[in-house]
Design a protein that fits this description.
single chain; 151 residues; mainly alpha; two-stranded antiparallel ribbon; 6 helices
Length: 151
């Protein structure tokens, strides 16, 4: 039987998990010839769909100039395109149109290992995990928005 974790142990475990995820994201981006922010932006666009450069900048935490350079890099690489917004042709929308060719291969080992870990849980435990992922993602998004609005 395992011993219960103290709050400090739990915090340390969680921080180690987050650090490992960030390190993997950086390593994956580098292996695909991208910067970490570039890969992060592609993930945002894949999950949320097309958006204005301003929305993408807000979601990545970048100001206007770095957001423009980010979109330029992604467009030059063939991963996004700028298109006029249908309702206001003066505005531009950034659309995802591709992803790095080796991304799935780079991500496969971690995805497979995590899949095996999750498969080892019962259906009820998996439901709990995915409920946590959904709720924690929302909590982090709200906290990030609060931090941005305070600065």
């Amino acid at each position: 039987m395992s011993t219960p974790q103290t709050q400090a142990d739990a915090s340390r475990t969680y921080r180690r998990y987050l650090s490992a995820m960030l390190l993997h994201g950086h390593a994956s981006a580098k292996a695909c010839g991208l910067g970490a922010t570039d890969l992060y932006a592609l993930n945002i666009l894949e999950l949320a769909g097309p958006m204005t450069p301003g929305e993408l900048g807000a979601r990545t935490g970048l100001t206007t100039g770095p957001t423009t350079r980010l979109i330029d890099r992604l467009e030059e690489a063939g991963y996004v395109r700028r298109v006029p917004e249908p309702g206001d042709r003066r505005k531009v929308i950034v659309e995802p149109i591709g992803k790095p060719a080796g991304l799935d291969q780079v991500m496969a080992p971690a995805r497979e290992k995590v899949g095996e870990i999750i498969a080892g849980y019962s259906a009820e435990q998996r439901d709990l995990l995915f409920d946590y992922f959904d709720r924690a993602a929302q909590a982090y998004q709200e906290a990030a928005e609060l931090l941005r609005s305070d600065s």
